[in-house]
Amino acid sequence: MNTIQQHASADTPELGSLQINLTSGLNSRPVADATIHISYTGVPDSILEELHTDSSGQTETIELNAPPLEYSLNPAIEEQPYSEYTLHIEAPGFESVSIAGVEILPTVKAIQNVTMNPSDTTGPSEEVFVIPAHTLYGTYPAKIPESEIKPMDETGEIVLSRVVVPEYIVVHDGSPRDSTARNYYVKYKDYIKNVASSEIYATWPEDTIRANVLAIMSFTLNRVYTEWYRNMGYDFTITSSTAFDHKWIPERNFYDTISPIVDELFSNYLSRPGVRQPILTQYCDGRQVQCPDWMTQWGSCSLGEQGYSAIQILRYYYGDDMYINTAESIAGIPSSWPGYDLDTGATGSKVRQMQEQLNTIAGAYPALPRIDADGVYGPATKASVRKFQSIFGLPATGIVDYPTWYKISEVYVGVSRIAELN
């Protein structure tokens, strides 16, 4: 790792890390040879480091100063628990991008994914994003309470016949009635990672993160399943207002402790016996706002530190009849998970399909070696899978497990869909 040489002070004695991944908004391919300047937010002209992207559109992982770990683990401490940095990104043929307020927590890696738009011939232009304060640190409207189970017999209400994990959701970046707010098409998993990174701290215990991710996903899938906003005449799935839904922030970073949990759990949601729809699992922070009948985020952190599992945390707040369910269908994938890990010695159509998808992806990611699509999981296939996992932030085991299968499908669809259009 490359450590940025900064003037460490008494209140920034710890380190977090950051990796930046750039893709083209035109064809989902990586953006190589980009230049990224990093500075402290508030001191944008004092460049701390210059980074460049490789053929996979990635920078090296660098270390950055961050506040003490205790700040993000103790609700009684009111100091800001993360440091903020500004990124200025330039790449040949693309509009430049500036992101202020990238949040670096100690001991975890921040992952900053950026979509670059091709530049036009009218002259230089720049997209500017300013990341607001984390919801546990800043002040945001409290959630307006709703029934956790929506009535399904209202005349004219549109309701899906089964629970489906969508490929994309439409996020209205404001309150529902704000007609000036922009709608964003966001991949479902990216949305969950963004919200979790905006609403809990990535330094929290793993089972605390799992419990909160499950609550966020169940709430979101309730909005999808009941077509909540579309039944009111709106053309979006969910909002970014904390009064109505979750905090979602365009171009914010997420973390390596949250991303793999979402990749593992993304088809899950929370159920009660006899209820078909995902439960609208509401919550509050438990420090600025109290909510006796819901999960509190700081309380879930404490339970995780005491050794509670994710389902134990959820049942502590929502009752003993809450259980984890799995969606019947996942939208936007060529073929579903085979039901078992693919590893050395595996053969058959699922192996061949996975090999063909990796070869298509290799057309966009030159660092990924091409392999024979022979339906046999040999050493070359294992090496290609391991490289894919390392590029896309998965544990580099060389085994196609559940998260890897769906990540290959996701990247394959993104790369091949644009190719088909061309």
Automatic annotation (TrEMBL):
Gene3D superfamilies: PGBD-like superfamily/PGBD. It comes from the Bacteria. Pfam families: PG_binding_1 (PF01471). Signal peptide: none annotated. Residues 347-407 form the Peptidoglycan binding-like domain. InterPro entries: Peptidoglycan-bd-like (IPR002477), PGBD-like_sf (IPR036365), PGBDSf (IPR036366). This is Peptidoglycan-binding protein.
